[in-house]
């Protein structure tokens, strides 16, 4: 497999040779190739990748060059592209080529390419920027559910945002905030959820609702998760005694699919001297439907080491009883949209009570999100909910302040 440096060298060499004034870089992803490896074995997966590579090359002109760029990714250099329309014609040929299943695998397998296109010199003077902007166009195509997108110049602001966030992560300029999680039945602190906060010199206070989804759409989510994981554990390690407290760290579904994620978390726990039982990995319901088999494998390994597994925002997504039967969860976090309605909507209150009872019958604990007033808290206590969080119980605050305020006053568990 050719690496990024080699691809950049080939594109920059093409520019230096001055063989043509305009050309296109096409960033192409073929979703489904990785699944062939998982279902039929790595040998079949590699054969499918070879077939896809050959199919791409056959569908293009002899002067076009195709490079491998990951398990299901390719970079295509398209010389002599006079306009975006010419590049789109090449993309259309590739889409037509993949209309038939890859029939050289153990079972015919239909895959569909997704592409992002950048043009030289319109979208960048060199390989690095061209490839980044083609990747941004690819992300946009995936976000829209389209098969190809040409980079749009107004995305420059997004690129600046990307560069600044990446620099902030590398320089450790983000902050970890802890929001208290309360044991509702014993009325005592049970732990906290770790939340990332970013104050940008250019954009001011950036909401996590903006920069976390942005990170998930780019390659920054792995960097953000590693930063959150290590920074959280560094603060937790400052406790003289863990006192039964547990700290929740959010994991994106995209991170779970990355190789070595389990080893990274276990290694970080060992480095910081934090016991696995002091950590909860929070994942959203979408993880259950995106890649259930892989998620189960990864999370079961974490649970078997004593790490808690919480399904976040439960009750608003696509999780079903069948999913919960297979999923190695230890906790359900009931979404705040349900919790906020239990005072005014009797039907919703019955639903929340049913979720709590179901969870307990499945040996799962429950946490209510978004508790905003004492009446809601009292209702949840009566329903038997185990834990709760929300502004009524405590707002997010810098981790060091949280530990100074709460941890020294918590009695041993």
From TrEMBL:
Q: Which Pfam families match?
A: EAL, GGDEF
Family matches, as SUPFAM superfamilies = EAL domain-like, Nucleotide cyclase
The protein's superkingdom reads Bacteria
Q: Which InterPro entries match?
A: Cyclic-di-GMP_PDE-like (IPR050706), EAL_dom (IPR001633), EAL_sf (IPR035919), GGDEF_dom (IPR000160), Nucleotide_cyclase (IPR029787), Rev_trsase/Diguanyl_cyclase (IPR043128)
GGDEF domain: residues covered: 21-154
Q: Which residues belong to any copy of the EAL domain?
A: 158-410
Single Gene Ontology MF annotation: cyclic-guanylate-specific phosphodiesterase activity
Give the protein's recorded name.
Diguanylate cyclase
């Amino acid at each position: 497999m050719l690496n990024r440096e080699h691809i950049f060298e080939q594109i920059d060499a093409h520019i230096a040779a001055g063989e043509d004034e305009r050309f296109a870089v096409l960033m192409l992803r073929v979703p489904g190739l990785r699944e062939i490896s998982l279902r039929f074995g790595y040998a079949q997966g590699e054969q499918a990748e070879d077939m896809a590579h050959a199919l791409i090359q056959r569908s293009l002109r002899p002067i076009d060059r195709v490079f491998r760029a990951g398990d299901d990714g390719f970079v295509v250099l398209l010389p002599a592209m006079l306009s975006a329309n010419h590049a789109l014609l090449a993309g259309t040929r590739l889409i037509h080529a993949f209309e038939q299943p890859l029939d050289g695998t153990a079972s015919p397998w239909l895959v569909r390419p997704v592409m992002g296109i950048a043009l030289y010199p319109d979208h960048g003077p060199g390989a690095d920027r061209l490839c980044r902007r083609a990747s941004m166009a690819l992300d946009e195509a995936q976000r829209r559910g389209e098969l190809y997108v040409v980079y749009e110049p107004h995305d420059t602001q997004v690129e600046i945002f990307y560069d600044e966030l990446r620099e902030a992560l590398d320089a450790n300029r983000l902050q970890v905030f802890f929001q208290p999680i309360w044991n509702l039945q014993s009325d005592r602190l049970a732990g906290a959820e770790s939340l990332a906060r970013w104050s940008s010199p250019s954009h001011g206070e950036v909401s996590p609702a903006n920069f976390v989804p942005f990170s998930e759409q780019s390659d920054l989510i792995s960097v953000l998760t590693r930063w959150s994981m290590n920074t959280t554990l560094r603060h937790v390690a400052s406790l003289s005694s863990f006192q039964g407290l547990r700290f929740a760290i959010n994991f994106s579904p995209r991170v779970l699919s990355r190789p070595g994620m389990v080893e990274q978390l276990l290694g970080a726990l060992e480095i910081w001297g934090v016991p696995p039982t002091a950590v909860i990995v929070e994942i959203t319901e979408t993880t259950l439907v995106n890649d259930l088999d892989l998620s189960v494998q990864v999370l079961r390994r974490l649970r078997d080491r004593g790490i808690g597994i919480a399904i976040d925002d439960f009750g608003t997504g696509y999780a079903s009883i069948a999913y919960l039967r297979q999923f190695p969860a230890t906790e359900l976090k009931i979404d705040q949209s349900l919790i906020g309605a239990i005072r005014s909507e009797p039907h919703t209150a019955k639903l929340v009570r049913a979720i709590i009872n179901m969870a307990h019958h499945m040996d799962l604990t429950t946490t209510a999100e978004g508790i905003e007033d004492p009446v809601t808290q009292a209702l949840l206590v009566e329903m038997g909910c185990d834990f709760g969080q929300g502004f009524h119980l405590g707002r997010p605050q810098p981790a060091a302040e949280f530990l100074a305020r709460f941890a020294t006053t918590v009695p041993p568990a």
